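Usage

Read records sequentially. Each one opens with the input sequence:
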Amino acid sequence: MTGRWNWRAAARCRTGDAEGLFVVGARQRQARALCRGCAVRTECLGHALDQRIDFGVWGGMTERERRALLRSRPDVRSWTDLLLQARAEHYAAAAAAAASTPVDEPIVEPAAIELARVSEPDPTDGTDDHGSDHDHRLDESA
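and closes with the structure output:
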């Protein structure tokens, strides 16, 4: 019989003060920061949702956020399965995108392309690089 992986052993809060995750009110939003860099955040959140854990910050979500999520999706039978599948699909899409980018082509953000396009002067609009109006034709009277 094979055992299930114990994600709790890899939890970031395991080595720190986990009591800080069981605070009330607005302090929960601050407590979520501990979860941001945790390698097992998905497993933790899935566990809390599946077990309907009422108290504390789990998987980066406050009590209120988890309750709202549970109310919005009452049809979900296994949050752990749903979240793990979504994570796997996300990683697969990211890997496919990375594989389709040629190695010799630099990766340029769309915003940088748009900025470059907007800042390039249009030689047909009658302005110079600084937006000044100039008649680019030679003065024939000189």
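Summary fields computed downstream for this record:
- The radius of gyration is 27 Å.
- Residues 7-119 form one domain.
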